[in-house]
Amino acid sequence: RSCSFTGFSTVQSRKLAKSLSRSSVRSRMSLKPPKAYNSLQKGALIWDPKPLQVKKIFEALKKGLNEYLEAHQAELDYLSGRHKDTKRNSRLAFYYDLDKQIRSVERYIRKLEFHISKVEELYEAYCIQCRLRDGATNMKQAFSLSPSTKASRESLVELYKNVQECTEDMCFIEGALEVHLGEFHVKMKGLVGFARLCPGDQYEVFVRLGRQKWRLKGKIETDDSQTWDEEEKIFIPNLHEKFEIKVTELRGLATILVGVVTCDSINFFTTKPQPIIVDITELGTIKLRLEVLW
């Protein structure tokens, strides 16, 4: 198949290059600089987009946003029905209170609809850049296998630039998409260990999501209840990072590692609080209970 590209003219290759550059996302969208986004800040800019992971997060995010939209639409329908009944009964104060609630829900629905449209717009632009990058990469490979001529060398240079531009644009869009992921409110629900947990035992739980960290200490009381120095932490979702949870037992000046686990956040994009029970030890003799609200 590579021989079919040997006659590809310089003019044709430049037309392809112009077509790709015209489709550059930054020529059509106003994006903030990389430092505005979690995954792109503090000089940690790595041009390594991950389309499959972005697709999974996008689908989970869109599903969660639609759940919120359906819930608020149902609330609006319920309030609108009560609004009509109240109007007939002429209870003026209650009528105006309902009217305010309806307007508030309507505003929130409009915000959700805009949010969903923005996420869809970003992902559509991301898919376009991904396809353009794949096409330019395939063309580059084909030209590299063909006999070296001045035209093919010029085409390789242009295609290399296009691959770089598409890759950069994909990373910028990933950063822009992260802004729309919302917040995870993580609540500590305690350890479950049956015979492994004894009164007086002290533990430290360390939760990390990318650069975000949460370190909290707890103690098993004589009545088997647990006290923790913190109960809730807000994390900003990240496209590529998973939750990393480490539990250590504190014994005087010594610490004993109980276990380290990772937890994917893709199932947390939903309207209902998600209870999480993770096995800290390999045999599951100590478990950690958390609750995540998006």
From TrEMBL:
Residues in FAM65 N-terminal domain copies: 1-294
Pfam family, one: PL48
InterPro entries: FAM65_N, RIPOR3
Family under the similarity heading: Belongs to the RIPOR family.
Protein name per the record: RIPR3 protein
Organism: Hippolais icterina (icterine warbler)
Gene for this chain: Ripor3
